[in-house]
């Protein structure tokens, strides 16, 4: 199990091989069982892994507008399961959060940027860069600095590292400072 491997300090290549061998539903299940301390440890372990690229979220072969979804779990004590949806839109890869409180917090739009953090091996989700228009079928973009979005997404930058072909570990920062918040994402089938 993934949590056990994290607890014993498995190397990045071993974690990747384990996760890549799982069926998608089992991979999601194991990722959603990983607790907050294990997510923090996974962040450290993934630092030795392979680089992460924008194409790992939306393959270059996919047409604009094709949505790619990842199931997620964060390290918060409540409301910890969610999804992140990604799409190529207006020449960029943008994303939004889908969770039970989206009606109140908004979609939490962000733009993805390559080559951030850890020697260019990470991808940044920049919540300060909200697209000006919505991808087809998505809610209208709104600033992450107003309403309840202010408390969740304002000035947020999520740094992401590869764990395996279909799993990513993220670390949240606000105004350039870590906020001791992590999440794990697993690509949905």
What are the SSEs and their pairings?
Blueprint lengths: L1 H6 L4 H9 L3 H9 L3 H11 L21 E7 L6 E9 L2 E7 L3 H4 L4 E7 L5 E5 L22 H4 L3 E9 L2 E8 L2 E11 L2
Antiparallel strand pairs: 1-2, 1-8, 2-3, 3-4, 4-5, 5-6, 6-7, 7-8
> The biggest beta sheet, please?
8 strands, antiparallel, barrel
Name the structural class.
Answer: alpha+beta
Quick check: average pLDDT? 92
- Fraction of residues in helix: 10-25%
Shape: globular
Q: Give the count of structural domains.
A: 1
How many extended strands? 8
Rg over C-alpha atoms, rounded to the nearest angstrom: 15 Å
The quaternary organization reads as single chain
Strand content: 25-35%
Low-confidence stretches: none
Distance between the termini: 20 Å
Order of helices and strands: HHHHEEEHEEHEEE
Biggest β-sheet: strands ordered side by side in the sheet: 1-2-3-4-5-6-7-8
Count of discrete alpha- or pi-helical segments spanning 4 or more residues: 6
Task: Based on the model shown, name its key terms.
8 strands, alpha+beta, 23% helix, 6 helices, 189 residues, globular
Structure commentary:
This protein is α+β, with helices and mostly antiparallel strands. It has one domain. It contains six helices and eight strands. It has helices at residues 2-7, 12-20, 24-32, 36-46, 102-105, 149-152; strands at 68-74, 81-89, 92-98, 110-116, 122-126, 156-164, 167-174, 177-187. Strands 1-2-3-4-5-6-7-8 form an eight-stranded antiparallel β-barrel. The two termini are 20 Å apart. The mean pLDDT is 92.
Tell me briefly what this model is.
The protein is of the alpha+beta class.
